[in-house]
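[job 0412] stage=complex_fold ligand=pantothenoic acid status=START
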Amino acid sequence: MKVPAKDSKYSVNLKIFKLHNYSIAPKICGGSDKKSPSPTNGTAPAVLTKRNSWRASWKFSAAKQQQKQQLADSTQQPEYECDAELPADKRNHLDSNNDSSTATDNRSQHWADALERVSTSSNVECENGRTAQQLSGELDEFMSMPWFGMDIGGTLTKLVYFEPKDITPDEQDQEAEILRNIRRYLTKNSAYGKTGHRDTHLQMDNVEIRKRRGSLHFIRFQTTDMSNFLLLAKQKGMAELVTTVCATGGGAFKFENEFRQQVNMKLAKFDELDTLIKGILFAEVQNPTECYFYENARDIMKSEKRAFDFSKPYPFILVNVGSGVSILAVYGPDNYKRVSGTSLGGGTFLGLCCLLTGCNSFEEAIQLATKGDNRKVDKLVRDIYGGDYDRFGLTGDLVASSFGQMHIKDKRSSVSREDLANATLVTITNNIGSIARMCALNEKMDKVVFVGNFLRVNPISMKLLAYAMEFWSNGTLKALFLEHEGYFGALGCLLQFNGEIAAALNETAETSQQTQKSETTADTFSNTINSTTSPHSNNTNNSDS
Ligand SMILES: Nc1ncnc2c1ncn2[C@@H]1O[C@H](COP(=O)(O)OP(=O)(O)OP(=O)(O)O)[C@@H](O)[C@H]1O
Ligand SMILES: CC(C)(CO)[C@@H](O)C(=O)NCCC(=O)O
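[job 0412] stage=complex_fold status=DONE, emitting structure tokens
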């Protein structure tokens, strides 16, 4: 991975702390020793139920157990090929979990099943009516380049593209021109269309995936720009390539038909939280400096980014700050639950900031926040007490009430756009920190990993979160951050194992059959409510917000 020499974004944003030339002790976690009220927007814990349909999709070959085992023994496991070459400690890291060895066995078994099935039973009918031959074709199609993983989120779409670097001259001769053009287009540019960007500083080189060596490119664009993206993909000839793309995020469901109709692309859909964890584990193994923390977190003026050894990660709290926030308790690679969430996330920060300051982009909002002072907007403990509230350890500098001065006309007229942006950022960050801390306490975990694009170019929030975890836990909680911030869902998608892909394709077929059925039902009973369940309905959260 290209590691930036000195992250300029940090030096720029440090200005805020220079401007606030005081010992910053913003109130990150509401209430401290006081009994904190429950977060208004928290969600009820939802225990993960693993999706089982892929197991069912292969079950007809269970009768040939012995034969399968031989195949399994002689077959490598694509997803873990790179693992086989890893140093022992890294391998242990993937295997150290209570579930992981079982998961690996299952995977090799199912990969063996898949191979056996396509090689020996090409006309056996699958559950959804497709033959093994068809399924084999779909797997081949998936295996053919280009390889993408896509995370279509509420605000940003993230695309991870694998560029093969081990192309032989023969392969090069045979490579379709369209494919070559797509590869060149993606890897030679860093801006695409109106909102597309390649984060060149995050590029991972010399990565091995499914026995191919190459580079991973990280691209993002606004989800509102999806129709332009599809148009561009069509112009570049994607429709003629007939590819299947692994996709996750809400948009994988929302835009599925558009992908099919406009660029002839099938989406193999995966759950966003499953892929998030897979992506994180892969990035950590690939990049020794993926994970970092803030040293001297208690003194925001002095706190500095340092590498953290995340090779033995479990258990940990994972806070994904996207448009909204999901909070997971992670016990192992295939073992987690979504413990909470809040609708007050990155989307809220951006939305409120645009409303309050008239800014037009996340970058602009962060720039404004960097120059502003939340103390002119918020009501601090000292604005109420005239000093500290000693009895419960609340120093005068703490925010007692976010935006608490804005009901006063004079104060309102003296605040700047910068102050409002800063107060918005601090408010949203504090709230996330508060909920994350309560989750860590509940789950008795001491590592809290923050990811998601809200943290992009946003050291103010990272430092506040690091401060919050450290200060309010008396040093027992540690906030951790990851370099590839918002790309883990897309990365995890790209890495999906072939057995899982086959299952996702099956689910797609099942869903379209269900949809057709429900459309017919809706025609017949036009007054009844369509209650078709989502293919992942056994794996969703119980959001109550
Ligand atoms: N260039 C950008 N444009 C818009 N938002 C950005 C940008 N860079 C960072 N952000 C922040 O990142 C957030 C989106 O993060 P992310 O991409 O992780 O979530 P998402 O997948 O879009 O949302 P969700 O997971 O809730 O569907 C935005 O709400 C905003 O706060
Ligand atoms: C809906 C998702 C999961 C989409 O990524 C995310 O935006 C989220 O977790 N929102 C918060 C929902 C809640 O728990 O209140």
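Residues 144-285 form a domain with the Nucleotidyltransferase; domain 5 fold (CATH 3.30.420.510).
[job 0412] exit 0
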